[in-house]
Design goal:
Blueprint (H helix, E strand, L loop, with lengths): L4 E9 L18 E10 L14 E9 L2 E8 L12 H6 L16 H9 L4 H8 L13 E3 L3 E2 L3 E2 L2 E2 L11
Antiparallel strand pairs: 1-2, 2-3, 3-4, 4-5, 5-8, 6-7
Length: about 170
């Protein structure tokens, strides 16, 4: 389902002790583990423009002694749906129509039809069609984890870009 992107390998080093939030060994000060990151567009297909109004996604895999810890996130703090049962219907609005073979860029009827029937999508559409809709690059975007984690209490993580968060404008 992921059409195009890039990735990197590196090392995660915990610089502050987070044992008050989580018991995982990787969150103790000085702990290190290998990490792999994958960035990609979400809805486009191979050959689509890098300047398309499409959320960007990324995943981070921490390879710890206790096992793998995976994050999957997007560059927007909200998503098109709240009910996971709606995901197959939504993702079909992002792919080619099986009868006409038209993409969403050629015939956006499925996409707008989905939005009209799912008002929880309005917030995401406002972000996508606004100034933050086209990230300048994977290096210049924030990331928002799509799930809450049960540590001692529930937390939702985000990754804030160390450089300036840049977007393209149309």
């Amino acid at each position: 389902m992921v059409p195009k992107g890039s990735g990197a390998h590196g090392k995660f080093v915990c610089t502050d002790d987070l044992s008050d939030l989580c018991l995982a060994a990787m969150f103790k000060k000085g702990a290190e583990c290998p990490v792999t990151v994958r960035f990609s567009t979400v809805g486009g297909e191979t050959g689509t423009s890098d300047s398309a109004r499409d959320p960007r996604g990324f995943s981070v895999k921490f390879k710890t002694p206790e096992g793998n810890f995976d994050w999957v996130a997007n560059n927007t703090p909200v998503f098109f749906l709240r009910d996971p049962a709606k995901f197959p219907h939504f993702i079909h609005t992002q792919k080619r129509d099986p009868e006409t073979h038209l993409t969403g860029a050629d015939d956006s009827t499925n996409f707008w039809d989905y939005l009209s029937q799912n008002p929880e999508s309005v917030h995401q559409v406002m972000i996508l069609m606004g100034d933050r809709g086209i990230p300048s690059g994977f290096r210049h975007m924030h990331g928002y984890y799509g799930h809450s984690l049960n540590t001692y209490t529930f937390y939702c993580f985000g990754v804030i870009c160390a450089d300036l968060c840049l977007n393209l404008y149309s």
